[in-house]
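Bumping with the actual sequence this time:
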Amino acid sequence: MKNKEHTRQVRDTVVKKFKAGFGYKKISQALNIPRSTVQAIILKWKEYQTTANLPRPGRPSKLSAHARRRLRCRDAAKRPMITLDELQRSTAEVGDSVHRTTISRILHKSGLYGRVARRKPFLKDIHKKCCLKFATSHLGDTPNMWKKVLWSDETKIELFGNNAKRYVWRKSNTAEHTIPTVKHGGGSIMVWACFSSAGTGKMVKIDGKMDGAKYRTILEENLMESAKDLRLGRRFVFQQDNDPKHKAKSTMEWFKNKHIQVLEWPSQRPDLNPIENLWKELKTAVHKCSPSNLTELELFCKEEWEKMSVSRCAKLIETYPKRLTAVIAAKGGATKYFQFSIC
């Protein structure tokens, strides 16, 4: 705790004894105050010729200089992934109860800012060209065309949210931090799902390793039913990425036999798929449910997927041309939408 300030009378007595020839040690013993305090009072008197409180630039800090150094050097600098809540608790444990914004302000003054810990996307030139071609060729498509698309994807969801976005404390122009993986961290599940501008379709947990046969079974049992539930009609367009099991000859023949049009898709560009936004929101929502086992994880995933609002789905499709425009502006390179596909 920060020590209470001594009264003006005490400070005047210190100066009076100093003028009388007493040393720091004797003054300290006579007044029962620390020698360092005596020294500070005398130094201030020598510099300003007064023991009165001088005008201050603002409200005194609730944290002592030592506590501020501890925040900057021991906590945030050595543990860059520590959260504001954890910093707040650690200061409270030593008797300094302050608000989160106070802690944030102290770190900002030291040049430490919260930054997302993530890896930078890497795109080969051939992938950029394919993506640019896709964006250019579809930029003029009508809104009704995109409303007829049934978007799909698979994703892994961790039991304890290891894939969640994390923030770290670091100074500007310093190396980015990566999020370490935890061995045997509790497990995960793989799910397949689809959606359109009319809402979310079916979600299926993938048991075991996904192969072409298992993928076709998922399509057989869920694709047409999802299209029917979302009232896409018979002439809808199905979107999938270029995973080998998706592009297998037998899988493409299945689409042909079912008279399903498949959208041509560029390689290595998950950020073009708006379902990535929903994956991010789903993982955040499921993590807040705090599942304790894989059974609960699957249950919460399906419940939260069904809760996704139709308006949210419609908005993603309504703004899809902006996504294409961003890709064209980046000449096929990474856009801001990459944050959803790599977090």
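The tokens above came from a reply further down the thread. The longest helix spans residues 212-229.
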